[in-house]
Design goal:
It is built from 6 helices and no strands. By secondary structure, it is mainly alpha-helical.
Length: 108
């Protein structure tokens, strides 16, 4: 199963528990805040503004949408991290990171 098939499957309301329209609204509402938080953390680590162009760094195995889907599916179905890793073709450690979120604050 490739990543697009996994995303389409996990986005089904039977797995994630919400409609595709609501999922789109959720992703749209969270994406800007997520990116701003990530960029702020990067600024702190490198001690200032970026030195390379945006997108020049390493690529994530699971992009933001997949991380949200993995979290929703894990919380709804209690699917194990190992199973999520198989579906997304990543290790169970990465799947555990992607699906671990503090539900009270919405942060990993």
């Amino acid at each position: 199963m490739n990543i697009k098939q996994a995303r389409a499957t996990m986005a089904h309301h039977a797995f994630c528990g919400i409609s595709r329209q609501h999922l789109g609204e959720l992703i749209g509402g969270l994406a800007q805040h997520w990116e701003a938080r990530c960029e702020s953390g990067r600024d702190e680590r490198r001690g200032g503004a970026r030195k390379r162009e945006a997108g020049a760094g390493p690529k994530h195995e699971l992009v933001f949408i997949d991380r949200v889907l993995a979290t929703l599916v894990h919380l709804r179905t209690e699917l194990t991290h190992a199973a999520l890793g198989v579906i997304y073709e990543v290790g169970s450690t990465l799947a555990a990171f992607a699906a671990s979120i503090d539900t009270s604050t919405g942060t990993p």
